TrEMBL record, chains A, B:
Identification of the protein by name: Uncharacterized protein
């Protein structure tokens, strides 16, 4: 069947996002002094955001606000370097505080995105203080006893963790590529078990942080002027180029980013037998990842049924118009919550309906990081 | 084994190509009158270049010159629109002539790159005039009796075609993605039969012609200034974005570019059973394609042996340094003849040594089009 279906949910339609809107929102600074928020909800949890000045940290605040996440108080935590900066959040002004071992007293939920080493040091401290930590780093993802959660996929993995029990806990946010991939693949997997998955990624600058996004922009301006590009974050030209993901390469030849897809999929699906291989590539795109995914199923699943399943899947939008060649793009999903999937077709290299090829795009900072973490926090309420 | 091998053949090392060098070379124009080349070789074939003003047409001339291709005369042919333009080639001046049915009298070898409809109309006319046509379009690729040739891969397919026999012929140049893929995969296939191949491409602007390269540059300048990007060649923003290949989508859900990889591989390998699937994506890169390729073999082939095979393969360079994360990039292969391959590793999703993942980059205009065609012409000499 010729697929002509296009589902334009709330997030689609209208012009593409402007270039400047792709950047992490700068922290609104203020010269007025610290003020207490008048609209605090006494019955709501007290929050802390660790790494609040980073790209994901800033997106944590956007998402909390967009989703009207209730809170009694919120602590803005960062490194000593950023301490003292002032920022405005929901009409209240805050001073960024230095992250220390004492930061978590009275904190119910701590959202961490300050890199693996900060999480390793301060995550357990926060949990020992009774905070439930939702950690965006890879520090604890593969640890037994730490749930690795995509709320639409495996909410039950964290059902034993309760706020207000006085007991702290660690919950890990999966890697961005894993979240975006499994948002689209899991609904199919629930219908017909996925035996093997071959993933090739097209990853945005944002995965390497705000400075990498700035470097891509700077390099592009330089290259267009015929200048040698500035290479600080990446060791090579990124503008008008692409390269194998910059994560360290392991002894099996996979880089760490690729092995996250392999291992996290097994843990999230609680399926140690699922076969996954991945090739992760950095492309000169600002903030949304794309993934080409080839699937091998245990039982037949035809493309029409797959499309119908995906249309109904929470957090997923289908963009799959073959007639006008309209499929997901990173730009279209930028700043959006939903993961977009298209190019849904029977794999001609497999027998019958045992294989599908699909193409997925998702905002790396939002569903790939901050949104997923805030959704985890919402499940605690 | 930790791979630390880096083979830097002639084409590697030194600075990355400058941005301006990535563009198709503009035709050197001249105000002096048409002149006869003094160094003509009377024993050499007379050539014609059809579509000489296009990106690939210009590259035909560069490659002919770089490789000191011998010729008695050379006709510069293009559409009526370009007829009358003057250009300099190897210190001689030429006037671009309008392509007509009379263009091929006395022409021994005609290199075509003017689109499929021009090839369909004028290819058979040229062949009937006794010319051997090397056609870069898709017009005849799948026709029985028309060899589809990558000289390093299947030279024998054209061994029955002789210059000077008085009989014309058509020879097809494969699609750029197919050439780049099979340059790296065939040497492995010759050692252990490839049963199945899953390809995801990262394709440059050049595949859509010089105007697409200009549009990518223009759009990037516009987007950086906060302007709405000009979309003429592609219907959507290309700068800092990527999208499913713009080729028409067929009823099976694959686009034509993807099906070329599927069908051309079968024909070039003369193996109707090889299973291929592909997802073709356009990325904001100027002139070299990249491909993530997952391979499934009939017999075990370990990664060390694969690497050794590829190091010895003609027209292939291995860039595979895991320690310093140095792998092929489109920028590095731009303006170069060789196809680069790296990220050579055992596929962890397959048993034993029956699978490999590799990453390939090749210049789309050069080996993906003009160089391969000129190499075919060389085999006629």
């Amino acid at each position: 069947m010729q697929a002509t279906s296009v589902v334009h949910r709330h997030f689609l339609g209208g012009d593409a996002p402007t270039f400047s809107s792709l950047r992490p929102k700068p922290i609104p600074t203020t010269t007025t002094s610290f003020a207490i928020r008048m609209s605090l909800r006494e019955d709501a949890p007290s929050l802390a955001v660790v790494g609040v000045t980073g790209a994901v940290g800033q997106e944590f605040l956007s998402v909390l606000s967009d989703r009207s996440f209730p809170y009694r108080s919120i602590k803005m935590l960062a490194s000593k370097r950023s301490a003292g900066k002032k920022l405005t959040f929901e009409d209240n002004e805050y001073v960024v505080e230095e992250l220390t071992a004492d930061s978590f007293n009275g904190v119910n939920i701590a959202l961490f995105s300050a890199g693996g080493s900060i999480s390793k040091e301060f995550g357990p401290i926060a949990a020992n203080c009774g905070s439930v930590v939702v950690d965006n780093s890879s520090a604890f993802r593969m640890d037994d006893g730490v749930p690795l959660v995509i709320p639409e996929v495996n909410p039950d993995a964290m059902s034993h963790i309760k706020l207000g029990s006085g007991k702290g806990a660690l919950i890990a946010n999966p890697n961005c590529s894993t979240i975006i991939c499994l948002m689209a693949v899991t609904p199919l997997h629930q219908r017909s078990k996925v035996l093997r998955m071959v993933v090739s990624t097209y990853q945005a600058a944002s995965g390497a942080g705000a400075a990498a996004m700035e470097e891509l922009e700077l390099q592009t301006r330089e290259v267009l002027k015929g200048k040698k590009p500035t290479c600080k974050i990446f060791k090579q030209q990124y503008a008008f180029n692409l390269f194998s993901h910059n994560a360290p390469v392991l002894s099996n030849g996979y880089n760490e980013e690729e092995m996250k897809l392999v291992k996290e999929t097994r843990k999230i699906w609680n399926d140690k037998d699922v076969k996954v291989t991945a090739t992760c590539i950095r492309v000169p795109v600002m903030r949304a990842h794309a993934e080409s995914v080839n699937l091998q199923f245990a039982n037949p699943l035809d493309e029409d049924e797959a499309r119908e399943i995906l249309k109904k899947a929470p957090g997923v939008v289908v963009i799959d118009d073959r007639v006008v060649n309209n499929f997901p793009t990173p730009l279209e999903v930028s700043n959006k919550d939903d993961v977009a999937v298209g190019r849904i077709r029977r794999d001609v290299s497999q027998d019958g309906n045992y294989g599908l090829d699909i193409f997925i795009c998702g905002d790396q900072i939002r569903k790939g990081a901050a949104l997923n973490a805030v959704q985890i926090a919402e499940m605690l309420l």
